[in-house]
Amino acid sequence: MPAMPLAHLSWAIADNADRPACDAFFMDVFGAEPVFEIRITPENENAGLDREERLMMIGDTMIVPIAPAGVGAQDGAPIGDMLRRSAGADRWLGVALKVADLAAADAWFRAKGFRLHYDPGMEAHYFLITRGQAMGLRIEVLKQDLPNDPRQRAGWSAARWRDTHPLGIEGLQSVAVSAPSIEAAREVFGGRFEWPEIGTRRVEGEDCIAFAMGDTVLEAVMPSSDDSPLGRHLREVRGICAVTFKVRDAHAAAAHLTGRGLPLIGDPATRVAIAPEAAHGRTIWLTDRVPTAYPPAGSRLGEPAEFPALTA
User: Fold this and answer.
1) Most C-beta atoms within 10 A of its C-beta, which of 94, 124, 183, 307?
2) Residue 76: pLDDT over 70
3) Mean pLDDT along residues 210-217
4) pLDDT by residue (tens digit) across 141-150?
5) 220-265 residue pLDDT tens
6) pTM over 0.70
């Protein structure tokens, strides 16, 4: 499969009243830069808008917390119900990956046996691969540009997160999903998706197999036991369990977060995260280590995946 660069990472918030505090946390702690906000107005509510969201950049990675609003706040609203169902600690909506030609991508995925979902009215913009087809990972295959995406502007740089922000974020290193076994992950991500396998390793006692998704790495991580946090995630949640940013200095990042009174998990010398209960339910690791064969951090959104034409 052609490399598919990451357009955004998203998660759901059940109650829109909680969204401003979540956004403010990421702007304050991670230096997230708002680039666009979708809000309910009388006009777009009458047109059926069903959610509110703020698109924000952390380095060159876009994050999008989304909450039901407008007609979506009503029980029985399809998008609203999906967002409420998908909200919760360490429960992410998924990833959006960029392609150059949606029809060519559609043909490739269908030829591989995937079932594709199109939201009404969005047929020219994106399709979805549902969680049940990708080990709990919801994938949005996207052609359209995201509104006001700074990565599309000449001269825009994410260097300030690396050079001047206290966390020293260089870029997104990986997206981790809980997985039942190395073999199952290899069958789905290496086989059906044809993402190149990078290698296997152990991370804090848990087996991990890594695949080159595009400009970042997909890590499938196997729990060490059924009653471990990852074991419970695999059993009760599935899909994305954590993301990892590469930073200049993990120890310095840990010292900064501790100085702000934030509780941490992990090892300050190598890899730390704010305890999820203090980070709006997200596990976001910060590390200064780069595993063997992992690509350098950095978005390649300007190089969307080109799928070859299929011949009969």
Assistant:
1) 94
2) yes
3) 96
4) 999 999 999 9
5) 999 999 999 999 999 999 999 999 999 999 999 999 999 999 999 9
6) yes
In a domain, 296, yes or no: no
Residue 155: inside a domain, yes or no?
no
Contact present, 195 and 1 (Cβ < 8 Å): yes
CATH for 86: 3.10.180.10
